[in-house]
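User: two proteins, same treatment. go.

Assistant:
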Amino acid sequence: MVNIKEIDPSSSPWAPFGIQLRNSRKAKGLLQHQLARKCGVSASYVSFVELAHRPPSEKFATKADEVLETGGTLMLMWWQHKHTALVPGFPEYANHENRAAEVRLFSIDIVSGLLQTHAYAGAWEAANIRRGTATPEQAEERVAFLMTRQQLLARTPTPLLHAVLDESCLRRPVGGTKVMIEQLQHLEQLAASPSVIIQVAPYSLGEERPFSSHVTLLTMPDRKLLGYGETEVRGYLDRDIDTVLPLFRGYDRLQIEALNQAASMETIRAVRKGYEDGC
Protein backbone atom coordinates (compact mmCIF):
# COMPACT_ATOMS: atom_id res chain seq x y z
CA MET A 1 0.00 0.00 0.00
CA VAL A 2 1.39 3.39 -1.00
CA ASN A 3 1.91 5.78 1.88
CA ILE A 4 0.40 9.11 0.82
CA LYS A 5 1.93 12.06 2.62
CA GLU A 6 -0.58 14.49 4.10
CA ILE A 7 0.06 18.16 3.41
CA ASP A 8 -0.31 20.84 6.07
CA PRO A 9 -2.04 23.83 4.38
CA SER A 10 0.03 26.20 6.53
CA SER A 11 3.35 24.51 5.81
CA SER A 12 4.08 26.55 2.68
CA PRO A 13 2.57 29.45 0.73
CA TRP A 14 2.01 26.99 -2.14
CA ALA A 15 0.55 24.19 0.03
CA PRO A 16 -3.11 25.15 -0.62
CA PHE A 17 -2.42 24.96 -4.37
CA GLY A 18 -0.83 21.54 -3.96
CA ILE A 19 -3.78 20.26 -1.92
CA GLN A 20 -6.27 21.56 -4.48
CA LEU A 21 -4.28 20.00 -7.33
CA ARG A 22 -4.15 16.61 -5.60
CA ASN A 23 -7.86 16.66 -4.73
CA SER A 24 -8.84 17.67 -8.27
CA ARG A 25 -6.59 15.00 -9.80
CA LYS A 26 -8.07 12.29 -7.60
CA ALA A 27 -11.61 13.47 -8.38
CA LYS A 28 -10.87 12.87 -12.07
CA GLY A 29 -9.42 9.44 -11.30
CA LEU A 30 -5.95 10.29 -12.61
CA LEU A 31 -2.58 9.17 -11.30
CA GLN A 32 0.28 11.64 -11.13
CA HIS A 33 2.00 10.27 -14.23
CA GLN A 34 -1.28 10.42 -16.18
CA LEU A 35 -1.84 14.06 -15.28
CA ALA A 36 1.80 14.80 -16.05
CA ARG A 37 1.49 13.32 -19.54
CA LYS A 38 -1.64 15.35 -20.29
CA CYS A 39 0.04 18.55 -19.05
CA GLY A 40 3.36 17.99 -20.79
CA VAL A 41 5.44 17.77 -17.59
CA SER A 42 7.17 14.99 -15.67
CA ALA A 43 5.51 12.92 -12.95
CA SER A 44 8.10 14.21 -10.48
CA TYR A 45 7.05 17.80 -11.33
CA VAL A 46 3.44 17.00 -10.43
CA SER A 47 4.59 15.33 -7.24
CA PHE A 48 6.76 18.27 -6.22
CA VAL A 49 3.92 20.73 -6.87
CA GLU A 50 1.40 18.63 -4.92
CA LEU A 51 3.81 18.47 -1.98
CA ALA A 52 4.52 22.22 -2.26
CA HIS A 53 8.21 21.49 -2.83
CA ARG A 54 8.21 23.77 -5.86
CA PRO A 55 5.84 26.46 -7.17
CA PRO A 56 3.72 25.73 -10.24
CA SER A 57 4.27 27.67 -13.43
CA GLU A 58 1.49 29.75 -14.95
CA LYS A 59 1.49 27.42 -17.97
CA PHE A 60 1.04 24.35 -15.75
CA ALA A 61 -1.75 25.97 -13.70
CA THR A 62 -3.60 26.87 -16.89
CA LYS A 63 -3.20 23.41 -18.44
CA ALA A 64 -4.10 21.58 -15.22
CA ASP A 65 -7.28 23.66 -14.98
CA GLU A 66 -8.17 22.57 -18.50
CA VAL A 67 -7.37 18.88 -17.97
CA LEU A 68 -9.01 18.62 -14.55
CA GLU A 69 -11.97 20.84 -15.52
CA THR A 70 -11.70 22.86 -12.33
CA GLY A 71 -13.39 25.96 -13.74
CA GLY A 72 -10.31 28.14 -13.34
CA THR A 73 -9.74 27.35 -9.65
CA LEU A 74 -6.03 26.53 -10.01
CA MET A 75 -5.30 29.56 -12.16
CA LEU A 76 -7.18 31.73 -9.68
CA MET A 77 -5.04 30.41 -6.83
CA TRP A 78 -1.89 30.97 -8.89
CA TRP A 79 -2.87 34.59 -9.55
CA GLN A 80 -3.68 35.19 -5.90
CA HIS A 81 -0.22 34.05 -4.85
CA LYS A 82 1.90 35.53 -7.63
CA HIS A 83 0.36 38.97 -7.82
CA THR A 84 -0.01 41.63 -5.16
CA ALA A 85 -2.01 44.28 -7.01
CA LEU A 86 -5.31 43.18 -5.48
CA VAL A 87 -7.03 44.87 -2.55
CA PRO A 88 -6.09 43.01 0.67
CA GLY A 89 -8.90 40.65 1.58
CA PHE A 90 -10.15 40.29 -1.99
CA PRO A 91 -8.22 37.08 -2.85
CA GLU A 92 -9.97 35.30 0.03
CA TYR A 93 -13.34 36.43 -1.35
CA ALA A 94 -12.40 35.43 -4.92
CA ASN A 95 -11.60 31.91 -3.76
CA HIS A 96 -15.10 31.57 -2.29
CA GLU A 97 -16.70 33.24 -5.32
CA ASN A 98 -15.15 30.65 -7.62
CA ARG A 99 -16.86 27.84 -5.66
CA ALA A 100 -20.19 29.55 -5.03
CA ALA A 101 -23.50 28.06 -6.18
CA GLU A 102 -25.12 31.50 -6.39
CA VAL A 103 -23.64 34.99 -6.70
CA ARG A 104 -25.74 38.10 -6.07
CA LEU A 105 -24.42 41.56 -6.90
CA PHE A 106 -25.63 45.13 -6.57
CA SER A 107 -23.56 47.87 -8.17
CA ILE A 108 -23.64 51.66 -8.18
CA ASP A 109 -21.80 53.86 -10.73
CA ILE A 110 -19.71 51.04 -12.26
CA VAL A 111 -20.73 47.74 -13.83
CA SER A 112 -19.87 44.74 -11.62
CA GLY A 113 -16.51 43.14 -12.41
CA LEU A 114 -17.95 39.78 -13.44
CA LEU A 115 -20.00 41.58 -16.11
CA GLN A 116 -17.28 43.88 -17.46
CA THR A 117 -15.73 43.68 -20.90
CA HIS A 118 -11.96 43.73 -21.20
CA ALA A 119 -12.08 47.24 -22.68
CA TYR A 120 -14.33 48.58 -19.90
CA ALA A 121 -12.11 47.10 -17.17
CA GLY A 122 -9.02 48.42 -18.95
CA ALA A 123 -10.46 51.92 -19.18
CA TRP A 124 -11.23 51.94 -15.45
CA GLU A 125 -7.71 50.82 -14.57
CA ALA A 126 -6.19 53.32 -17.03
CA ALA A 127 -7.79 56.07 -14.95
CA ASN A 128 -6.15 54.64 -11.83
CA ILE A 129 -2.79 54.90 -13.60
CA ARG A 130 -3.45 58.54 -14.52
CA ARG A 131 -4.38 59.31 -10.91
CA GLY A 132 -1.25 57.62 -9.66
CA THR A 133 -3.16 55.05 -7.60
CA ALA A 134 -1.87 52.11 -9.66
CA THR A 135 1.18 51.33 -11.73
CA PRO A 136 0.77 50.04 -15.30
CA GLU A 137 1.89 46.62 -14.05
CA GLN A 138 -0.70 46.59 -11.27
CA ALA A 139 -3.45 47.69 -13.65
CA GLU A 140 -2.53 44.93 -16.09
CA GLU A 141 -2.55 42.35 -13.29
CA ARG A 142 -5.99 43.44 -12.08
CA VAL A 143 -7.54 43.21 -15.53
CA ALA A 144 -5.94 39.81 -16.15
CA PHE A 145 -7.18 38.57 -12.78
CA LEU A 146 -10.69 39.80 -13.58
CA MET A 147 -10.69 37.91 -16.87
CA THR A 148 -9.65 34.79 -14.93
CA ARG A 149 -12.48 35.31 -12.43
CA GLN A 150 -14.98 35.51 -15.26
CA GLN A 151 -14.29 31.86 -16.09
CA LEU A 152 -16.73 31.26 -13.24
CA LEU A 153 -19.53 31.79 -15.76
CA ALA A 154 -18.30 28.85 -17.86
CA ARG A 155 -17.89 26.50 -14.91
CA THR A 156 -19.74 23.19 -14.59
CA PRO A 157 -22.04 23.22 -12.72
CA THR A 158 -22.77 26.79 -13.74
CA PRO A 159 -23.55 29.06 -10.79
CA LEU A 160 -26.55 31.37 -10.76
CA LEU A 161 -25.44 34.98 -11.24
CA HIS A 162 -27.99 37.62 -10.27
CA ALA A 163 -26.88 41.22 -10.79
CA VAL A 164 -28.86 44.36 -10.10
CA LEU A 165 -27.26 47.45 -11.61
CA ASP A 166 -28.18 50.92 -10.49
CA GLU A 167 -29.12 53.03 -13.52
CA SER A 168 -25.97 55.07 -12.90
CA CYS A 169 -23.89 52.06 -14.04
CA LEU A 170 -25.41 52.41 -17.51
CA ARG A 171 -25.19 56.16 -17.81
CA ARG A 172 -21.72 56.83 -16.38
CA PRO A 173 -19.49 56.86 -19.49
CA VAL A 174 -16.42 54.73 -18.79
CA GLY A 175 -13.87 54.58 -21.58
CA GLY A 176 -15.88 56.62 -24.05
CA THR A 177 -18.78 55.91 -26.38
CA LYS A 178 -17.36 52.85 -28.17
CA VAL A 179 -16.47 51.11 -24.91
CA MET A 180 -19.92 51.80 -23.43
CA ILE A 181 -21.74 50.50 -26.49
CA GLU A 182 -19.72 47.29 -26.34
CA GLN A 183 -20.31 47.00 -22.58
CA LEU A 184 -24.07 47.41 -22.89
CA GLN A 185 -24.20 44.88 -25.72
CA HIS A 186 -22.26 42.51 -23.49
CA LEU A 187 -24.88 42.88 -20.75
CA GLU A 188 -27.61 41.98 -23.23
CA GLN A 189 -25.69 38.90 -24.36
CA LEU A 190 -25.05 37.76 -20.78
CA ALA A 191 -28.72 38.14 -19.89
CA ALA A 192 -29.59 35.64 -22.63
CA SER A 193 -27.93 32.90 -20.55
CA PRO A 194 -30.34 30.86 -18.38
CA SER A 195 -27.89 31.14 -15.47
CA VAL A 196 -27.65 34.95 -15.54
CA ILE A 197 -30.26 37.44 -14.35
CA ILE A 198 -29.65 41.15 -14.88
CA GLN A 199 -31.98 43.82 -13.54
CA VAL A 200 -31.78 47.60 -13.51
CA ALA A 201 -32.66 49.66 -10.44
CA PRO A 202 -33.98 52.87 -12.07
CA TYR A 203 -33.40 56.35 -10.71
CA SER A 204 -37.15 56.53 -10.11
CA LEU A 205 -36.75 53.99 -7.31
CA GLY A 206 -35.49 56.89 -5.22
CA GLU A 207 -35.37 56.27 -1.50
CA GLU A 208 -37.02 52.85 -1.93
CA ARG A 209 -33.72 51.41 -3.11
CA PRO A 210 -32.59 49.33 -0.09
CA PHE A 211 -28.83 49.73 -0.58
CA SER A 212 -26.66 52.83 -0.86
CA SER A 213 -23.40 51.02 -1.63
CA HIS A 214 -22.11 47.95 -3.46
CA VAL A 215 -23.35 44.61 -2.15
CA THR A 216 -21.90 41.18 -2.93
CA LEU A 217 -23.54 38.02 -1.59
CA LEU A 218 -22.57 34.37 -2.04
CA THR A 219 -24.53 31.19 -1.47
CA MET A 220 -22.09 28.29 -1.19
CA PRO A 221 -22.84 24.71 -2.28
CA ASP A 222 -23.55 23.76 1.36
CA ARG A 223 -26.04 26.73 1.45
CA LYS A 224 -23.76 28.75 3.72
CA LEU A 225 -24.30 32.49 3.19
CA LEU A 226 -21.40 34.95 2.85
CA GLY A 227 -21.20 38.70 2.29
CA TYR A 228 -18.36 40.82 0.97
CA GLY A 229 -17.68 44.55 1.12
CA GLU A 230 -14.79 46.89 0.39
CA THR A 231 -13.34 50.19 1.47
CA GLU A 232 -10.81 51.99 -0.70
CA VAL A 233 -7.97 50.09 0.95
CA ARG A 234 -9.20 46.57 1.77
CA GLY A 235 -12.00 44.03 1.45
CA TYR A 236 -13.93 42.17 4.13
CA LEU A 237 -15.53 38.74 3.91
CA ASP A 238 -18.44 38.45 6.34
CA ARG A 239 -19.40 34.99 7.60
CA ASP A 240 -21.62 36.16 10.48
CA ILE A 241 -25.18 35.07 9.70
CA ASP A 242 -26.56 37.79 11.95
CA THR A 243 -25.15 40.49 9.67
CA VAL A 244 -25.30 38.62 6.35
CA LEU A 245 -28.93 37.50 6.55
CA PRO A 246 -30.34 41.08 6.63
CA LEU A 247 -28.37 41.77 3.43
CA PHE A 248 -30.02 38.80 1.72
CA ARG A 249 -33.42 40.05 2.87
CA GLY A 250 -32.62 43.51 1.52
CA TYR A 251 -31.57 41.92 -1.77
CA ASP A 252 -34.90 40.09 -1.97
CA ARG A 253 -36.63 43.45 -1.69
CA LEU A 254 -34.31 44.96 -4.27
CA GLN A 255 -35.23 42.20 -6.74
CA ILE A 256 -38.89 43.09 -6.31
CA GLU A 257 -38.42 46.86 -6.56
CA ALA A 258 -36.06 46.82 -9.56
CA LEU A 259 -37.25 46.47 -13.16
CA ASN A 260 -37.86 42.90 -14.26
CA GLN A 261 -35.37 41.45 -16.70
CA ALA A 262 -37.42 42.21 -19.81
CA ALA A 263 -37.91 45.84 -18.79
CA SER A 264 -34.26 46.02 -17.74
CA MET A 265 -33.12 44.90 -21.19
CA GLU A 266 -35.35 47.55 -22.77
CA THR A 267 -33.67 50.16 -20.57
CA ILE A 268 -30.20 48.91 -21.45
CA ARG A 269 -31.03 48.95 -25.19
CA ALA A 270 -32.45 52.47 -24.90
CA VAL A 271 -29.31 53.74 -23.15
CA ARG A 272 -27.12 51.98 -25.73
CA LYS A 273 -29.09 53.61 -28.55
CA GLY A 274 -28.48 56.95 -26.88
CA TYR A 275 -24.73 56.32 -27.02
CA GLU A 276 -24.99 55.17 -30.64
CA ASP A 277 -26.98 58.24 -31.68
CA GLY A 278 -24.34 60.41 -30.05
CA CYS A 279 -21.53 58.91 -32.12
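Protein 2:
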Amino acid sequence: MTERPGVPARDLSDEELERQGVHAHAMRHWVFLHGTADQFRTHTERMLELEQEYLRRHPQRTWQGSGGGAVTPSRDDRIRDLVQTFSRAVTALLDEEPAPSAPEGRGRDPEEAQTALLRRFAEAPGGRMHKLEAHQIARQLAPDNHLVARLYRQDPPLLAAERDMRVLTEAGRQWLASHAATA
Protein backbone atom coordinates (compact mmCIF):
# COMPACT_ATOMS: atom_id res chain seq x y z
CA MET A 1 0.00 0.00 0.00
CA THR A 2 1.09 3.56 -0.53
CA GLU A 3 2.18 5.91 2.22
CA ARG A 4 -0.69 7.99 3.56
CA PRO A 5 -0.81 10.63 6.25
CA GLY A 6 -2.64 9.62 9.40
CA VAL A 7 -2.41 7.03 12.12
CA PRO A 8 -1.81 3.43 10.97
CA ALA A 9 -4.84 1.20 11.61
CA ARG A 10 -2.87 -1.05 13.99
CA ASP A 11 -2.26 1.95 16.32
CA LEU A 12 -5.94 3.00 16.61
CA SER A 13 -8.14 2.14 19.57
CA ASP A 14 -10.99 -0.30 18.91
CA GLU A 15 -13.55 2.51 19.07
CA GLU A 16 -11.61 4.76 16.69
CA LEU A 17 -10.91 1.87 14.32
CA GLU A 18 -14.60 1.04 14.12
CA ARG A 19 -15.61 4.72 13.74
CA GLN A 20 -13.13 5.35 10.91
CA GLY A 21 -14.02 2.06 9.22
CA VAL A 22 -17.76 2.75 9.24
CA HIS A 23 -17.11 6.27 7.93
CA ALA A 24 -14.83 4.94 5.13
CA HIS A 25 -17.46 2.41 4.05
CA ALA A 26 -20.17 5.07 4.05
CA MET A 27 -18.04 7.45 1.94
CA ARG A 28 -16.89 4.97 -0.73
CA HIS A 29 -19.70 5.69 -3.23
CA TRP A 30 -19.27 9.46 -2.86
CA VAL A 31 -15.50 9.19 -3.45
CA PHE A 32 -16.08 6.95 -6.49
CA LEU A 33 -18.61 9.30 -8.07
CA HIS A 34 -17.04 12.65 -7.21
CA GLY A 35 -13.36 12.04 -6.49
CA THR A 36 -10.36 11.56 -8.74
CA ALA A 37 -8.92 8.15 -9.55
CA ASP A 38 -6.05 8.81 -7.12
CA GLN A 39 -8.46 9.80 -4.33
CA PHE A 40 -10.53 6.68 -5.00
CA ARG A 41 -7.44 4.44 -4.88
CA THR A 42 -6.18 6.04 -1.65
CA HIS A 43 -9.64 5.89 -0.03
CA THR A 44 -10.07 2.21 -0.99
CA GLU A 45 -6.63 1.30 0.35
CA ARG A 46 -7.39 3.01 3.67
CA MET A 47 -10.83 1.39 3.87
CA LEU A 48 -9.30 -2.06 3.31
CA GLU A 49 -6.52 -1.38 5.81
CA LEU A 50 -9.08 -0.45 8.48
CA GLU A 51 -11.28 -3.44 7.69
CA GLN A 52 -8.38 -5.91 7.71
CA GLU A 53 -7.18 -4.62 11.08
CA TYR A 54 -10.72 -4.82 12.48
CA LEU A 55 -11.13 -8.39 11.22
CA ARG A 56 -7.69 -9.31 12.62
CA ARG A 57 -8.73 -8.08 16.06
CA HIS A 58 -12.28 -9.50 15.91
CA PRO A 59 -12.26 -12.58 13.63
CA GLN A 60 -15.84 -13.57 14.55
CA ARG A 61 -17.28 -10.16 13.66
CA THR A 62 -17.88 -8.11 10.52
CA TRP A 63 -18.66 -4.43 10.02
CA GLN A 64 -22.33 -5.46 10.24
CA GLY A 65 -21.98 -7.11 13.68
CA SER A 66 -21.22 -10.55 15.01
CA GLY A 67 -21.26 -13.49 12.69
CA GLY A 68 -23.35 -16.54 13.48
CA GLY A 69 -21.89 -19.15 11.18
CA ALA A 70 -20.21 -22.28 12.48
CA VAL A 71 -17.31 -21.95 10.04
CA THR A 72 -15.33 -18.72 9.80
CA PRO A 73 -14.50 -17.95 6.15
CA SER A 74 -10.83 -17.65 5.28
CA ARG A 75 -9.17 -14.27 4.86
CA ASP A 76 -9.03 -14.81 1.09
CA ASP A 77 -12.77 -15.62 1.00
CA ARG A 78 -13.59 -12.48 2.98
CA ILE A 79 -11.46 -10.33 0.65
CA ARG A 80 -12.99 -11.98 -2.44
CA ASP A 81 -16.53 -11.38 -1.10
CA LEU A 82 -15.75 -7.74 -0.34
CA VAL A 83 -14.28 -7.12 -3.80
CA GLN A 84 -17.20 -8.87 -5.55
CA THR A 85 -19.78 -6.95 -3.52
CA PHE A 86 -18.06 -3.65 -4.24
CA SER A 87 -17.66 -4.48 -7.94
CA ARG A 88 -21.38 -5.31 -8.26
CA ALA A 89 -22.33 -2.05 -6.50
CA VAL A 90 -20.05 0.02 -8.74
CA THR A 91 -21.33 -1.72 -11.88
CA ALA A 92 -24.94 -1.13 -10.81
CA LEU A 93 -24.23 2.56 -10.24
CA LEU A 94 -22.53 2.93 -13.60
CA ASP A 95 -25.37 1.16 -15.41
CA GLU A 96 -28.16 3.31 -13.93
CA GLU A 97 -30.13 5.30 -16.47
CA PRO A 98 -29.82 9.10 -16.18
CA ALA A 99 -32.56 11.03 -14.42
CA PRO A 100 -35.01 12.66 -16.85
CA SER A 101 -34.16 16.10 -15.47
CA ALA A 102 -30.40 15.70 -16.03
CA PRO A 103 -28.73 19.04 -16.82
CA GLU A 104 -28.06 19.42 -20.52
CA GLY A 105 -26.01 22.61 -20.45
CA ARG A 106 -22.66 21.13 -19.36
CA GLY A 107 -20.21 19.46 -21.68
CA ARG A 108 -20.30 18.72 -25.37
CA ASP A 109 -22.88 17.78 -27.92
CA PRO A 110 -23.78 14.09 -27.28
CA GLU A 111 -22.55 12.95 -30.70
CA GLU A 112 -19.31 14.89 -30.25
CA ALA A 113 -18.78 13.27 -26.82
CA GLN A 114 -19.52 9.84 -28.30
CA THR A 115 -17.01 10.41 -31.11
CA ALA A 116 -14.34 11.59 -28.63
CA LEU A 117 -14.89 8.55 -26.38
CA LEU A 118 -14.81 6.07 -29.29
CA ARG A 119 -11.64 7.76 -30.56
CA ARG A 120 -10.04 7.14 -27.13
CA PHE A 121 -11.04 3.47 -27.39
CA ALA A 122 -9.57 3.26 -30.90
CA GLU A 123 -6.28 4.67 -29.56
CA ALA A 124 -6.20 2.19 -26.64
CA PRO A 125 -4.26 -1.08 -27.11
CA GLY A 126 -6.58 -3.56 -28.84
CA GLY A 127 -9.49 -1.12 -28.53
CA ARG A 128 -9.83 -2.23 -24.88
CA MET A 129 -10.15 -0.12 -21.76
CA HIS A 130 -10.98 -0.94 -18.12
CA LYS A 131 -14.56 0.03 -17.32
CA LEU A 132 -13.56 2.46 -14.54
CA GLU A 133 -11.19 4.30 -16.87
CA ALA A 134 -13.84 4.38 -19.61
CA HIS A 135 -16.47 5.81 -17.26
CA GLN A 136 -14.05 8.41 -15.89
CA ILE A 137 -13.27 9.61 -19.44
CA ALA A 138 -17.00 9.61 -20.30
CA ARG A 139 -17.75 11.79 -17.24
CA GLN A 140 -15.25 14.33 -18.54
CA LEU A 141 -16.85 14.34 -22.00
CA ALA A 142 -20.61 14.12 -21.42
CA PRO A 143 -23.19 15.90 -19.25
CA ASP A 144 -24.23 12.58 -17.64
CA ASN A 145 -22.44 9.43 -16.49
CA HIS A 146 -24.18 6.99 -18.84
CA LEU A 147 -22.40 7.45 -22.16
CA VAL A 148 -20.53 4.13 -21.92
CA ALA A 149 -23.64 2.14 -20.97
CA ARG A 150 -25.57 3.58 -23.94
CA LEU A 151 -22.78 2.59 -26.34
CA TYR A 152 -22.84 -1.09 -25.42
CA ARG A 153 -26.64 -1.26 -25.09
CA GLN A 154 -27.54 0.24 -28.46
CA ASP A 155 -28.19 -1.83 -31.58
CA PRO A 156 -25.68 -2.57 -33.00
CA PRO A 157 -23.47 -2.11 -29.92
CA LEU A 158 -20.48 0.17 -30.43
CA LEU A 159 -18.79 -1.20 -27.31
CA ALA A 160 -18.82 -4.70 -25.84
CA ALA A 161 -18.57 -5.56 -22.16
CA GLU A 162 -16.04 -8.29 -21.40
CA ARG A 163 -15.85 -8.73 -17.63
CA ASP A 164 -14.17 -5.56 -16.31
CA MET A 165 -13.11 -4.38 -19.77
CA ARG A 166 -15.01 -2.42 -22.41
CA VAL A 167 -14.01 -3.19 -26.01
CA LEU A 168 -14.59 -1.24 -29.21
CA THR A 169 -16.66 -3.42 -31.58
CA GLU A 170 -16.39 -3.56 -35.36
CA ALA A 171 -19.66 -1.58 -35.54
CA GLY A 172 -18.01 1.02 -33.28
CA ARG A 173 -15.00 1.26 -35.58
CA GLN A 174 -17.29 1.71 -38.59
CA TRP A 175 -19.36 4.35 -36.79
CA LEU A 176 -16.20 6.21 -35.79
CA ALA A 177 -14.80 6.05 -39.35
CA SER A 178 -18.03 7.40 -40.86
CA HIS A 179 -18.37 10.21 -38.32
CA ALA A 180 -14.69 11.15 -38.37
CA ALA A 181 -14.94 11.58 -42.14
CA THR A 182 -17.89 13.98 -41.84
CA ALA A 183 -16.30 16.00 -39.02
